[in-house]
């Protein structure tokens, strides 16, 4: 009789055959096929890992998640990685952990957090959700990161933290930011959802501050479908973050600990004010949620991590190609800029339609979309102009002219690893066709 492992391997071999038959990249037909700005890049291994995890039927976080956590931490260079169900959840956990009552000097309601106005909404939302006050500052034109020149003006007696994303994978000026953070004893939260693998002066972004975040949504550097992670070098912050992720419970057991818990005295804990013992798995020290990553997501992530160095190289190569080919349009389109200390692991290729251009962003993006070349605006633009943020409690530093320009004039196109040379050439040809028709 065939044993269980033989049966599993037979199933996985059929999954590989299915990939070859169904999931192989389709042919590209210029003008008919869509040139996506981002997308999943995978092979049979991701499908096999996912099916194998389903066969184990653990479903929630388990051994595969534990492996993924450790493998990701090794790549980043941090010990503590907290996998969660989205990058937005990672941002929520990061801000909530620094607002924990377990931290004597943690953030409290009414404290202020400096953020760029040109942000992704879920970078800012956790600030509001924790009763904190965002202080909006402007960004830099060209790299689209937080403008460090506004930091001192944003400072007040209630300032406790800075929270920003390394926009589209392009590192912010960490020398100036870290000097400001250290001089004023502030928390630093880095949103690296678009910047996995980016470095500043040889050091990975996300490792400068107290805690950082990642997203594994299909558009990002690696994908698990839905998914994300918070990461930190602080064991204390990691313990708090895990508690917030896991319903708020204090238990720090991993997925396969013995019945009496990792600590060995799970059933010998006391709840303050209550006589007798209580199961530590039901002892809550944080206001928490259930934000765990699942085994299937983690299994896919393990296969993606094997491809990550290649993905990063492809993104850099595609960026260099587009940068060189689109230079001829600099009279009308400002190309992205980056600091000499930055080595970006680019998420996308941003372009600014100059105010003097004889066309609008809407005109060029509509043309490209008609050619089936996908474009995107730079997320929310000036966030405080969005209806959801009309009546929030906040402070605004200056008039935010660059944030407004970003909202009016910036768009980006893709450079993810799924773009073949044929697709990149077609994208450039579509730009050329637009300018020929001016």
Fold and architecture overview:
This protein has 438 residues and is of the alpha/beta class. It has 2 domains: 47-297, Type I PLP-dependent aspartate aminotransferase-like (Major domain) (Aspartate Aminotransferase, domain 2); 309-436, Alpha-Beta Complex (Aspartate Aminotransferase, domain 1). The chain contains 12 helices and 15 strands. The strands form 3 sheets. The chain has an 8-stranded mixed sheet, with helices on both faces. It has a 4-stranded antiparallel sheet with strand order 10-12-15-13. The protein has a 3-stranded antiparallel sheet with strand order 7-6-11, with no helix packed on it. Helix 5 (121-129) links the parallel strand 2 (112-116) and strand 3. The radius of gyration is 23 Å and the shape is flat. The termini are far apart.
Task: Give structural attributes.
single chain, 438 residues, alpha/beta, Aspartate Aminotransferase, domain 2, Aspartate Aminotransferase, domain 1, 8-stranded mixed β-sheet, 4-stranded antiparallel β-sheet, flat
Please tell me the overall pLDDT.
96
What gyration radius follows from the Cα positions, in whole Å?
Answer: 23 Å
Lateral strand order in the biggest sheet: 1-9-8-5-4-2-3-14
Helicity, as a percent range: 25-40%
Continuous helix count:
12
Please state roughly what percent of the residues sit in beta strands, choosing from under 5%, 5-15%, 15-25%, 25-35%, 35-45% or over 45%: 5-15%
By DSSP, the count of extended strands is: 15
Order of helices and strands: HHHEHEHEHEHEEEEEHHEEEHEEHEH
Which architecture of the largest domain would the CATH scheme give at its second level? 3-Layer(aba) Sandwich
Low-pLDDT runs: none
**Mass-distribution shape:** flat
């Amino acid at each position: 009789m065939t044993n269980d492992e033989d049966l599993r391997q037979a199933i996985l071999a059929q999954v590989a055959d299915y990939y070859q038959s169904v999931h192989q990249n389709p042919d590209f037909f210029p003008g008919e096929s869509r040139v996506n700005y981002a997308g999943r890049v995978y092979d049979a291994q991701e499908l096999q890992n996912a099916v194998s995890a389903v066969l184990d039927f653990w479903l929630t976080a388990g051994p595969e998640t534990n492996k993924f956590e450790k493998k990701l931490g090794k790549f980043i260079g941090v010990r503590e990685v907290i996998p969660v169900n989205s990058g937005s959840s990672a941002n929520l956990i990061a801000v909530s952990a620094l607002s924990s009552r377990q931290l004597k000097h943690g953030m409290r309601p009414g404290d202020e957090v400096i953020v760029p106005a040109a942000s992704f909404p879920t970078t800012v939302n956790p600030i509001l959700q924790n009763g904190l006050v965002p202080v909006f500052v402007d960004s830099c034109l060209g790299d689209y990161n937080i403008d460090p020149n506004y930091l001192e003006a944003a400072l007040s007696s209630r300032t406790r933290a800075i929270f920003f994303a390394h926009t589209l994978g392009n590192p912010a000026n960490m020398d100036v930011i870290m000097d400001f953070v250290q001089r004023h004893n502030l928390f630093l939260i880095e949103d690296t959802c678009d910047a996995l693998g980016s470095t500043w002066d040889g050091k990975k972004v996300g490792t400068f501050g107290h805690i950082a975040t990642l997203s594994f949504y299909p558009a990002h550097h690696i994908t698990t479908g839905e998914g994300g992670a918070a990461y930190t070098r602080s064991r204390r912050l990691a313990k708090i973050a895990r508690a917030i992720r896991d319903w708020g419970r204090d238990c720090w057991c991993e997925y396969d600990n013995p019945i009496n818990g990792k600590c060995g005295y799970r059933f010998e804990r006391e709840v303050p004010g209550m006589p007798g013992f209580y199961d530590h798995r039901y002892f809550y020290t944080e206001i928490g949620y259930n934000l765990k990553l699942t085994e299937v997501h983690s299994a896919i992530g393990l296969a993606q991590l094997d491809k990550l160095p290649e993905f990063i190289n492809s993104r850099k190569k595609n960026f260099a190609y587009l940068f060189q080919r689109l230079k001829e349009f600099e009279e009308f389109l400002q190309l992205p800029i980056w600091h000499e200390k930055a080595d970006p692991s680019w998420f996308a290729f941003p372009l600014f339609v100059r105010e003097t251009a004889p066309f609008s962003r809407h005109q060029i993006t509509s043309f490209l979309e008609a050619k089936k070349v996908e474009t995107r605006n730079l997320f929310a633009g000036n966030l405080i102009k969005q209806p959801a943020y009309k009546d929030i409690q906040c402070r605004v530093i200056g008039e935010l002219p660059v944030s407004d320009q970003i909202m009016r004039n910036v768009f980006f196109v893709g450079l993810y690893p799924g773009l073949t040379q044929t697709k990149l050439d077609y994208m450039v040809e579509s730009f050329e066709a637009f300018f020929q028709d001016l």
